[in-house]
Amino acid sequence: MKTIKNEWLGTGLEDQPEFASGDISRSLGPQSGFFAEVTGLQTSPLLNRPELANELGIDKLFIKDERARLGLGSFKALGAAYAIAKQAFTRIQSGEVTDPNTALEGMTFVCASAGNHGLSLAEGARIFGADAVVFVANTVPEAFAERLRAKGARVARAGEIYEESMAEAERQASENGWHLLSDSTWPGMTEPGRDVMEGYLKMGEEIARQIPEPPTHVFLQAGVGGLAAACASSARTSWGEDVTIVVVEPEAAPALLASISAGKPVLAPGPVSNMGRLDCKEPSHLALRYLALEANIFSTVTDAEAEETVAWLDGNGLKTTPSGAASLCAVHHARSHFEELGLTADSRVLCYLSEGPEDG
After folding, report:
1. What whole-number distance in Å separates Cα of residue 181 and Cα of residue 190?
2. 106-150 pLDDT, tens per residue?
3. Is the pTM of this model over 0.90?
4. pLDDT band at 360 (very low <50, low <70, confident <90, very high)
C-alpha cells in the first residue's frame, strides 16, 4: 500500500492544453425522482460492522453495500441508466412524449464495457424504449456478453483490450448517429460522463439519511474516478471539511495518483490488475479536476492485498470482488499507515462495497 498527500487540495489543478474544462454535477436534478419511480429504485443498505472496526483498530466501520442495486449487482446501475433516464425525462417534460417506456424509441445508446457500465446502459435503454449496443474486447468472457444480450443489448466484439473496443464504439457512434455514453470524460466528451457521475450522487444522498454520525474518513475506490468524484462531492456536501477523503486505486493502474503527482492528466503505467473494474490507465478529466480540489489523500493497493481483503470479507459474510473491495482493502491494510491516513482508534470510517461477486 502506498499513500501520498494531495498537494493540490483546495486549489485544484491548473488549466492547460488537452485538459477538459468543466465540473461534475454537485446535486441530483429533478429527474432523480422520475428515475427512481420508473425503475423501482430502492435504497441500498448502509452496514454498521463494529466487530470489523474493532479488528481494524478503529471506532466505527460503515459500509455502503451496492451489491444488489437494481438487480444489476453494482453501483453502476445508478450511472448509465440514470443518464438515459435524464434524456427521457427531458422529452416528457417538453411534452414531446408521454409514456416513459417508449420515450426514447428510435435512439441507440452505445458504449464500450468490460463490466457493469454496459449492463447499466443496456437496462436503461430497455426501460425507456431505446436500443443499446455494447462493444466488448475479445478477452471479455462470453458469460458477460450473454448477460448483456439478456438485457436486450446488441454485443459487438472489437479489439483485444478495452481501449480498442472504446475506439470502435466512438467510430461507430459517429458513423451511425448513435449516442455515445461513456462513464469517463475527456476533451470534447464531457456531458455524457457528467450525467453518469450525477447518478452516483444517489448513494451519498442515501448515506446522509442512513448514517448515525458523521464519518471522520471516507475511502473511495477509483478506476477513471467517477464513483470517487461523486461520492467525495456528497461527503463534502454532508460533512464539509471535517471529513478526510482517501482515493484508492490499484497499484497497477494509478491513473489519478499519477496525474496528481504530475499535475496534469497522464497515462499511468502498469500491468493488468486483478481489480479489473478499476484497471484504468487514464483518468476521467472532470473527476480528476474535482478530486484534485477536494481529496485529501491518494493511495494504491496491490493485487495481493486486494485478494487478501476479498477472502477476509468473504469470511465475514461480505462476498465481493477485488474491485468491489478496494476501498475496504486500504482500511484492511492501513495498520502501518495510520499516521499518514490520519487514522486513530477513534476514527469512524465509511467505505463502499461497490459490486457483488462474479458468480452472483
Report:
1. 10
2. 999 999 997 799 999 999 999 999 999 999 988 888 988 999 999
3. yes
4. low
Please say which residue of 122, 150, 182 terminates a domain.
182
Judgement on whether residues 155 and 225 belong to the same structural domain of the protein: no
Report the distance separating Cα 17 and Cα 194, nearest Å. Answer: 20
Distance, CA of 69 to CA of 152 (rounded, Å): 19
pLDDT at residue 247 tops 90: yes
Query: How many Cβ atoms sit within 10 Å of the Cβ of residue 176?
Result: 10
Contacts 24+ apart (CB under 8 A), 39-45: 39/70, 39/81, 39/85, 39/127, 40/70, 41/70, 41/202, 43/206, 43/210, 44/68, 44/69, 44/203, 44/206
The mean pLDDT value for 183-202 works out to 97
Helices (H) and strands (E) in the chain, counts: 13, 11
Same domain as 206, residue 162 = no
User: Looking at 9-139, which runs of residues are DSSP E strands?
Assistant: 46-48, 60-65, 108-112, 131-136
Lowest-confidence region among 50-59, 70-79, 125-134, 136-145 = 136-145
Residue 290: which domain range? 2-75+192-353
CATH number at 115 reads 3.40.50.1100
Pull the grid cell for residue 199: 447518478
64 pairs with which residues across the strands?
46, 352
pLDDT at residue number 140 = 85
Q: Tell me the percentage of the chain whose pLDDT exceeds 70.
A: 99
The answer to whether residues 196 and 291 belong to one domain is yes
In this prediction, residue 301 carries a pLDDT of: 98
Which grid cell sits at 140? Answer: 471479455
Residues in the chain: 360
Domain count, the chain: 2
Burial class of residue 336 in the structure, from the number of CB atoms within 10 Å of its CB (0-12 exposed, 13-18 middle, 19+ buried):
exposed
Asked if residue 124 lies in contact with residue 109, where contact means CB atoms within 8 angstroms, the answer is yes
Report the phi/psi class of residue 6: left, alpha or beta, with left for phi > 0 and alpha for psi in -120 to 50. Answer: beta
CA distance 276 to 148: 18
